[in-house]
Amino acid sequence: MRNEIYKMELAGSMPYAKLVTYIQDESVEMDIPARPLVLVCPGGAYAFTSDREAEPLALQFLAMGYHAAVLRYSVAPATFPTSVCELAWSIRLIREHAEEWHVNPSRIIVLGCSAGGHLAASMGVFWNRDFLAKALGAEDADHRQWKPDGMILCYPVITSGEFAHRGSFDNVIGDREAEISAMVGAPALEALSLESQVSADTPPAFLWHTYTDDAVPVENSLMFVNAMRRAGVAAELHIYPVGGHGLSLANRLTQGQGGSAVQKECSSWISLAHTWIEGQE
Predict the structure, then answer these.
(1) Is 19 helix (H, G, I), strand (E, B) or coil?
(2) Cβ 169 vs Cβ 192: under 8 Å
(3) pLDDT tens across 220-252, in order?
(4) Which residues contact 38 (CB under 8 A, 6 or more apart)?
(5) Which of 79, 101, 147, 155 counts the most CB atoms within 10 A of its CB?
(6) CA 255, CA 250: separation in Å to the nearest integer?
(7) pTM (whole model) above 0.70
(8) CA-to-CA distance for 109 and 130, rounded, in angstroms?
(9) Which helix (H) or strand (E) element contains residue 239?
(10) d(CA 260, CA 155)
């Protein structure tokens, strides 16, 4: 397996920001087509990136036969669109190396948990916007080079309205509300409420949430899926009746302190996501 680290050197990136790749070795003994790649964006309210939602997820997708990567993106005091630019840069890097790494360039899936879900979904709705290309210094580039082919959104932060996880928006906007508003051409909170940004150009999505999530209410996923339905974009949503926030794999492999975040009823989500990825062919 090729396990490499790529440091972010974009304007505004924090020193720790990096992309970690997990590229499976190929062999003349195996006739396997170019593999999909799942690019993981851990959660952490845009204040940190969770270890529990990083490599443990990547390893599960490796076991399914995919390539994987983890983006340790910049968080507060870094603000929008720094982390989105880092994700776009990462997708572009993977596509540039697709042949060498035996990656299917049409099967790059972004996965995000909680605030990482907001980041992954932001990539899905903003990939073709001029402000993003300008922030990347690539105004004349083909925006499709950083478009994700699908999104897996795990208990995602989506809306900045009634059901918002306020801390995530405070961190990703910081003290740059006026600058962000001018850049995107709308009030920052409104623009970053992603259910209002879905279009026919948004890639398909798999989402899961728990009904009892008291940190990021289930309405976040419901609102995003409703917007996707109105836009005519395919989406699959699973709502589990019990479980708190930040479950990751929901089993002992990602349990928190004192055995928290284990919810066996929810642990099926990753096998359902596997089936969904296979169905995207």
Answers:
(1) strand
(2) yes
(3) 999 999 999 999 999 999 999 999 999 999 999
(4) 57, 58, 61, 66, 67, 68, 69, 109, 110, 111, 152, 277
(5) 155
(6) 7
(7) yes
(8) 22
(9) strand 235-240
(10) 17
